[in-house]
Specification:
This protein has helices at about 10-20, 45-65, 80-90, 105-110, 140-145, 150-160, 180-185, 220-225, 235-245, 260-275, 290-300, 300-315, 320-330, and strands spanning about 5-10, 25-30, 70-75, 95-100, 115-120, 135, 165-170, 195-200, 210-215, 230-235, 250, 275-280. By secondary structure, it is α/β, with parallel strands linked by helices. Helix 2 packs across helix 3 (about 80-90) and helix 9 crosses helix 12. The longest helix is centred in the first third of the chain and has 24 residues, at about 45-65.
Length: about 325
């Protein structure tokens, strides 16, 4: 019998999302991202981080001994480091996937030692040393692609949207984005032809003005993406993959604090392909974001071209390609 286990961080977001997938055995470990400057490790916060990493290593070893996995897959980030490291040391087949244009610290450290590295972008392969490497795109949830097949009327009705209005979806990522929220909530959406679906994230204001539908979370974000005529969002790798898989034109506002500026690099790739406009976060105080969206929506031919170029960059078969590479690896070991 096949089993699927997930090891993640002890965050409320992960607990909330995992509750929707009861067939996944999930385990949450201690951990925290390492500071960007090594000298910061000698601070109290740095020492606390090292202690949490050590605890996460111990927790992961117990989980692996209990679960006895056939293969261990790391998706980057601090919570993937302990289980993948134990997989390498214990001789369990190991895979890491790099979703960003520029690989993060954890994947750079692990890449030379794992059995397979997969990447979202072909150019990323040149930045990693690995035994075997393949470009697959980002594995996407089937629900996302299924939502794209539903009629617009059904999608909008399910989200409580007006069927007659053009829709702008504003996403700040899993934790929301306060600057995006503020930029939208201070704008006026007082015309009958436009509506804003704003996903604020935790701890953000929940009430918008006329024409703004503010929601704290959307568990089925695929339906919102499929219903949108234009998306305004951060530039996380998963978001870029979803936008391009569905062929959605976008205004991207990269998060300034993203490790190694990876959101800026992700956003610029889509901008260069012609599928997005990149707006620096500092410009949000000067630009009326809703008015910018309205002007872009009025340029229907430009919007159509952006959608086509976004779709051309997408890899909706990323999950299938990824699974094929993992299966190929296991048949050779």
């Amino acid at each position: 019998m096949e089993r699927l286990g997930y090891i993640g961080a002890r965050r409320e977001l992960e607990r909330r999302v995992l509750r929707n997938y009861p067939w996944i055995e999930h385990y949450l470990i201690h951990g925290r991202g390492l500071p960007r400057r090594w000298l910061q490790l000698v601070s109290w916060r740095g020492l606390s981080t090292l202690a949490q990493v050590a605890l996460g290593l111990v927790e992961s070893l117990f989980i692996i001994c209990k679960f006895r996995p056939t293969v261990i897959v790391g998706m980057g980030g601090f919570s993937s480091f302990p289980p993948v490291l134990w997989g390498i040391l214990l001789g369990i087949p190991t895979v890491i996937h790099e979703v960003n244009a520029v690989p993060g610290l954890v994947n750079r450290l692990l890449a030379p030692h794992v059995d397979l590295v997969t990447t979202a972008y072909a150019q990323t392969a040149r930045l990693l040393r690995a035994r075997r490497i393949a470009t697959t795109g980002v594995p996407l949830r089937r629900e996302l692609l299924e939502a794209a097949q539903l009629p617009q009327e059904e999608l909008k009705a399910g989200l409580g949207l007006d069927l007659r209005k053009r829709t702008v979806l504003v996403l700040g990522g899993s934790r929301g984005a306060a600057p995006l929220n503020r930029a939208i909530l201070r704008s006026r959406v007082d015309r009958d032809d436009l509506q804003i679906l704003l996903v604020t994230g935790g701890g953000a204001p929940q009430r918008g003005g006329t024409g703004i539908i503010a929601k704290q979370y959307l568990d089925r974000v695929g339906e919102a993406l499929a219903a949108a005529d234009l998306v305004i969002s951060r530039a996380g790798a998963a978001t870029i993959a979803e936008l391009t898989a569905l062929g959605k034109p976008a205004i991207l506002v990269p998060w300034l604090e993203a490790a190694e500026n990876h959101q800026e690099l992700n956003a610029r790739l889509l901008e260069q392909a012609g599928g997005a406009i990149v707006l620096p976060e500092g410009a949000l105080e000067e630009v009326d974001l809703v008015e910018l969206a309205r002007k872009l929506l009025a340029e229907r031919e430009r919007l159509r071209q952006m959608a086509d170029r976004s779709r051309a960059m997408g890899r909706p078969d990323g999950l299938q390609r990824f699974l094929e590479e993992v299966e190929r690896l296991l048949t050779r070991i």
